Amino acid sequence: KNEDVLIKLQRLIANLAINAEAGQSLAHNSDYAELLLNVIEMRSSWQSDEVCSNALSTIGNLTYYVTDQAGGSTWAILMKQSISVIFDILLSDKRELRLDCLRMFGNLSRSEPICELVLQYRG
């Protein structure tokens, strides 16, 4: 039941992020990013992959608004804490989660600090 509530909240945030004004506001609030990344880090405690997939998709929606000038360095700091988990997902056998990660990185690749972080990561 807790997962159902979390999934609904994630979908709400993801849908709000589609609106440019709301999306920019949400993307530049590091609390949302931190919470979503924490959900991903806790992926082994969820019964289904849907919680992690929704968190990655929501981050993908939020990161559409991230650039070097607008939140890129904040996201880089947060991603640095979670980069090993994100790469674990990229290397997993879970296709949908891998695709969600790639979409997220696609948006974040417009930010130089994020690109540097990915290039420096050695696992």
Please provide a written account of the structure:
With 123 residues, the chain is an all-alpha fold. 74% of the residues lie in helices and 0% in strands. The chain contains seven helices and no strands. It has helices spanning 2-16, 20-27, 30-41, 50-63, 72-90, 95-108, 112-120. Helix 2 crosses helix 4 and helix 3 runs antiparallel to helix 4. The protein starts with a helix and ends with a helix.
Short description:
With 123 residues, the chain is mainly α. The N and C termini lie far apart (35 Å). Helices cover 74% and strands 0% of the residues.
How are the SSEs placed, and which strands pair?
Blueprint: H1 2-16, H2 20-27, H3 30-41, H4 50-63, H5 72-90, H6 95-108, H7 112-120
Protein traits:
74% helix; globular; mainly alpha; 123 residues
| SSE string | HHHHHHH
Give average pLDDT, whole number.
Answer: 87
| Tally of contiguous helical segments | 7
Residue fraction in strands: under 5%
Major sheet size, sense and barrel closure: none
- Enumerate the spans where pLDDT stays under 50 for 5 or more consecutive residues: none
Proportion of helical residues: over 70%
Instruction: Report how far the terminal alpha carbons are from each other.
Output: 35 Å
Shape: globular
* Class by SSE composition: mainly alpha
Number of strands: 0
- Any idea what the radius of gyration is? 13 Å
